[in-house]
Design goal:
The complex is a heterodimer. Chain A is built from 6 helices and 15 strands. Chain A is α/β, with parallel strands linked by helices. In chain A, the strands form 3 sheets. Chain A has a 9-stranded mixed beta sheet, sandwiched between helices. A two-stranded antiparallel ribbon of chain A has the order 2-5. Chain A has a two-stranded antiparallel sheet with strand order 3-4. In chain A, α3 crosses α4. Chain A is globular. The N and C termini of chain A lie far apart (about 55 Å). The model of chain A has no long low-confidence stretch (mean pLDDT about 95). By secondary structure, chain B is of the alpha/beta class. Helices cover about 25% and strands about 25% of the residues of chain B. Chain B contains 8 helices and 17 strands. In chain B, α3 packs across α4. Chain B is globular. The mean pLDDT of chain B is about 95. The chains are: A alpha/beta, B alpha/beta. At the A-B interface, α3, α4, β9, β10 and β11 of A face α3, α4, β7, β8 and β9 of B. β15 of chain A pairs parallel with β17 of chain B, so a sheet runs across the interface.
Chain lengths: ~240, ~325
């Protein structure tokens, strides 16, 4: 089983989001970067599948040299080797093109990633990679089991889930509860240092969307506290201000 | 501008977010054609016209009854060409995300997700989209001639002044390669308001102490015609199903009112709700971080406050 796990390098979920250079650039000052939480689920499930079925896991990231600590963490969690496409991940099409290019020359049985990145939340890359490779793409995947050449998958739909069956290879965008996040142990961290991390130039520089500038949402005007003994005041606010009654 | 809208169904009804997408399109298009897979009532078809579509293409062939990302994508690509559509609009959803992505590759289109406002076409084609899980926006330019916009739920009011649409039965070309993913079964709640679609959401957290106490959350939700949600610990402990988990790694909601009962307000939970128009927090801990993100707050025991609030809302409605 050859598994490719695509990971994003994104601000920690507790980060304060702000921008610099006339709102054209994300302010990295004081921000911790992590493996995207959804990608982290995909990686954890890949490690479990490898334990069950044998094989190799390759971690792939599209990013500049700044992302290497994040890639090393994926190696510490259990990827065998890693590829970094040396470029800013400018838009989903650009990233999907890079992943598809690597996949065309490496014949993976399974291409896993998160359902979306937590910075741009597009949820587009898995579908684009599937279409570029002519493979099924399935997302958001909640459970993934493999028996021989066949995968059984539960996929979340609005208000429920559906159980799917599909032959390998395919692309999956993952989310909980597919696996528990894995915390790298000392042995993993030590071995990650010597695992191969190949740096590749981007295959194409095509993009189809460009960010003009960023904006922050208007600040909340402040909370109105209501005494539990005067619940009628809240009902008035819900009716006359929030207009939901 | 000619716009095609991809619609999704809930049982036989057009999904609310899909009608929002139709109205979104009608705000800037000269001609809106809607494409729906599966059978729906005449009332359902008419609702598409009232929301702003001039024409509805209905695919009634049985092979398109269940959501099929690959077959839907091929059919949409076919219709975009047939109708000479310049823009494809759809509601962001678990199926819509994948469909939009695949169509964008098939047709070489620019795709933007989580769009919150009508496009600005004064210079190029720009849209505002929500990023960083609702914590910021990106004004994004689309460069390809065909544009695909996936609209965030609950951002566009559904129009009520449209006319009866022209209805055409459409049979797409079929490629067996698009039918390789088999749906073995699907389970879905019925007769309830779907959480991602809801205009009001009532969520409970660990402060409720156990799943047996969810009756009061459901009663308040019923009084408000709301959907019910929960925090991550609650779904992790299996008190509530995963599809009710609201937060960074769960469902993101953008309702008119979000009511949080017994939820402290961890930043990961806030990430799922910070696009709500109004937030009401009920918590016995006055230091709960959720109060800092809320519009209305009550410090008190949920077991005391929630039934009182439900009764007051029910009384106010009479």
């Amino acid at each position: 089983m050859k598994i490719l796990v695509c990971i994003t390098h994104v601000p920690d979920t507790t980060s304060k989001i702000s921008f610099i250079e006339q709102n054209t650039k994300f302010d990295q000052n004081g921000v911790q970067f992590i493996i995207g939480p959804y990608d982290d689920y995909a990686l954890a499930r890949a490690v479990e599948l490898k334990e069950q079925l044998g094989g190799t896991i390759t971690a792939l990231n599209v990013g500049t040299s700044e992302t290497e600590p994040t890639i090393r963490k994926a190696l510490a969690i259990g990827a065998d080797d890693a590829i970094r496409i040396d470029a800013e991940p400018t838009d989903a099409f650009f990233v999907a093109n890079q992943i598809a290019h690597i996949a065309r020359t490496n014949a993976y049985d399974l291409i896993l990633m998160g359902r979306e990145s937590i910075d741009f939340n597009g949820g587009q890359v898995h579908g684009m990679v599937g279409a570029l490779l002519g493979m099924p793409s399935i997302s958001p995947v909640m459970t993934l089991d493999i028996d021989g050449n066949i995968a059984k998958i539960s996929r979340e739909i609005e208000g429920g889930k559906e159980l799917l069956e599909v032959a390998l290879p395919f692309v999956a965008g993952c989310q909980e509860p597919i696996a528990e996040w894995k915390i790298p142990n000392m042995r993993g961290i030590m071995s990650a240092r010597s695992k191969p991390l190949v740096i590749v130039a981007p295959f194409s520089d095509l993009v189809r969307t460009t960010v003009n500038h960023f904006e922050l949402p208007p600040a909340k005007s402040g909370i109105k506290m209501i005494d539990a003994e005067h619940i009628g005041e809240l009902v008035d606010l819900l009716r006359n201000e929030a207009k939901v009654l | 501008m000619k716009v095609l809208v991809f619609l999704e169904l809930d049982e036989e009804n057009i999904r609310k977010s899909s009608l929002e997408a139709v109205s979104y399109a009608a705000n800037f298009a000269s001609q809106v054609t809607a494409l729906v897979f599966g059978s729906t009532s005449l009332e359902g078809l008419n609702s598409i016209g009232i929301a702003g579509a001039n024409k509805v293409l209905q695919v009634t062939n049985d092979r398109f009854k269940q959501p099929n990302i690959m077959a839907f994508s091929s059919a949409i690509a076919e219709v975009v060409a047939l109708e000479n559509a310049e823009t494809l609009v759809l509601a962001k959803s678990s199926t819509g995300d994948s469909v939009a992505a695949r169509v964008s590759i098939k047709l070489g289109a620019s795709l933007v997700s989580n769009v919150t406002e009508v496009p600005d076409v004064s210079e190029g084609f720009k849209v505002k989209r929500s990023i960083y899980t609702g914590k910021a926006f990106a004004i994004t330019e689309l460069s390809a001639s065909l544009k695909i916009l996936s609209i965030r739920k609950n951002t566009v009011p559904i129009k009520t002044d449209g006319a009866t649409p022209e209805i055409v039965i459409f049979t797409p070309q079929m490629d067996e390669a698009d039918f390789v993913v088999k749906v073995l079964s699907s389970e879905k709640i019925t007769g309830q308001i779907l959480l991602p679609e809801a205009d009001i959401v009532v969520s409970g957290g660990r402060g409720l102490k156990g799943p047996e106490n969810w009756g009061m959350i459901e009663d308040l939700a019923k009084a408000l015609s709301a959907a019910t949600g929960c925090s991550k610990p609650v779904s992790d402990m299996d008190w509530r199903p995963h599809h009710e988990h609201v937060g960074q790694t769960g469902i993101k909601v953008s309702p008119s009112l979000y009511v949080a009962v017994g939820i402290s307000g961890a930043i990961q939970h806030l990430a799922g709700v910070n696009s709500s128009k109004y937030i009401l927090v009920i918590n016995k801990d006055p230091e709960a971080p959720f109060f800092k993100a809320a519009d209305y707050g009550i410090v008190g025991d949920a077991f005391d406050v929630v039934p009182k609030l439900t009764a007051a809302i029910n009384a106010a409605k009479v």
